[in-house]
Structure to design on (393 residues):
């Protein structure tokens, strides 16, 4: 089974109910790239800047994944137990059947593993597993992203990227028209113990999911992303509520949470945390950059990138040099991060890549060399507020 990638994620193909063909929502073909590039260039020529976020724009709630009702507990358990070890390995590990490899001189600030069980972020950061359904064909695929638990009124909020929940690219080329129909969050995910056995029907234990597997019940995205789920206008951020069928406590009580801030100063020293996975679009893969920068990823470990960001005034994004491959989408951008305690202020989520040599070039958007994160403003605050004041179902 071949591996594909949705923007910064790691989808896999499964059969299409209507046509019996593989769903291609990932690595676009040369023809698809050309079509998307032409369309993006046209739109870019018409846009001088993305519309500014307004405080009066409400969040957009997607269809609940586990709706309220008498069968809520049963549906929550079914959502969580769908993710066997085999399905997690298929969706969340690379397709080279090899472990990650550091640069010849060792890991650096562009990307390096975060020590396991070190500080708050080792508990709040986690891996997101999604099952996607194509809105038009019914085809099903799986993928993985990253997310982070934040402090909230209901202590149940995880922040990630909106494109991990919903994508609809223009003309359905490149990435298609898909929506997440099953999603779980694994805080502190430890893939070192995840076997590469796609036929395994065992459920993950504490060695892989030390704080449990949490089902996503409700989900919100920004109003802008609900209208343009294709990166053209930015605002790629989402908040989800999670619950655990085996633990009545809210996730914030189990893992703790990072503080979250909105409209914070830009051009700061920041850290990005995520689970990079796929190497087909890893800008820093062997053969694509000088040997001293080359590295690969396997999706097993939490990685961190640190550096000074620059403000992208068009998309209100934070851009910094970084070497994390697809799979780190939705990973937390933390400001004022303390490496001793593992605590910081979350001011964004990783959204896509950036190449300063290309104004709107699609190749720069899908592989780098820089990482571009959605900076939290008024629309993102509306999403967070909607989630933190809501009930789980």
């Amino acid at each position: 089974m071949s591996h594909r990638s949705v923007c910064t994620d790691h989808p896999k193909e499964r059969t299409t109910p209507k046509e019996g063909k593989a769903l291609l929502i990932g690595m676009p073909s040369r023809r698809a790239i050309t079509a998307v590039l032409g369309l993006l260039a046209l739109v870019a020529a018409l846009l001088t800047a993305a519309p500014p976020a307004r405080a009066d724009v409400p969040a957009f709630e997607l269809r609940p994944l586990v709706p309220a009702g008498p069968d809520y507990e049963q549906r929550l358990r079914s959502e969580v137990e769908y993710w066997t070890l085999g399905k997690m390995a298929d969706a969340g590990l690379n397709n080279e059947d090899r472990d990650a490899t550091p640069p010849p001189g060792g890991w650096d600030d562009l990307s390096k593993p975060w020590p396991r069980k070190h500080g708050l972020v080792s508990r709040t950061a986690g891996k997101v597993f999604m099952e996607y359904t194509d809105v038009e064909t019914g085809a099903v695929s799986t993928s993985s992203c990253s997310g982070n638990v934040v402090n909230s009124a209901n202590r149940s909020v995880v922040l990630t990227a909106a494109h991990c929940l919903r994508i609809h690219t223009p003309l359905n080329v490149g990435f298609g028209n898909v929506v997440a129909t099953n999603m779980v969050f694994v805080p502190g995910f430890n893939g070192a113990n995840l076997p590469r056995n796609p036929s395994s029907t065992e459920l993950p234990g504490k060695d892989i999911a030390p704080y449990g597997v949490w089902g996503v019940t409700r989900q919100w995205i920004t109003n802008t992303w609900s209208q343009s789920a294709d990166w053209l206008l930015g605002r790629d951020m989402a908040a989800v509520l999670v619950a655990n069928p085996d633990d009545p406590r809210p996730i914030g009580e189990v893992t703790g949470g990072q503080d979250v801030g909105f409209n914070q100063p830009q051009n700061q020293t920041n850290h990005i945390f995520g689970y990079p996975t796929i190497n087909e679009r890893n800008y820093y893969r062997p053969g694509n950059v000088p040997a001293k920068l080359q590295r690969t990823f396997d999706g097993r470990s939490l990685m961190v990138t640190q550096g000074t960001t620059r403000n992208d005034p068009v998309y209100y994004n934070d851009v910094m040099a970084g070497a994390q491959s697809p799979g780190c989408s939705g990973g937390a951008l933390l400001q004022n991060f303390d490496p001793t305690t593992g605590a910081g202020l979350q001011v964004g989520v990783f959204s896509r890549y950036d190449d300063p040599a290309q104004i709107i070039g699609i190749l720069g958007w899908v592989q780098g060399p820089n990482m571009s994160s959605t900076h939290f403003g008024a629309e993102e605050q509306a999403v967070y507020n909607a989630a933190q004041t809501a009930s789980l179902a």
In short: The helical segments are 30-46, 72-81, 85-92, 121-124, 223-227, 251-255, 362-367, 378-388.
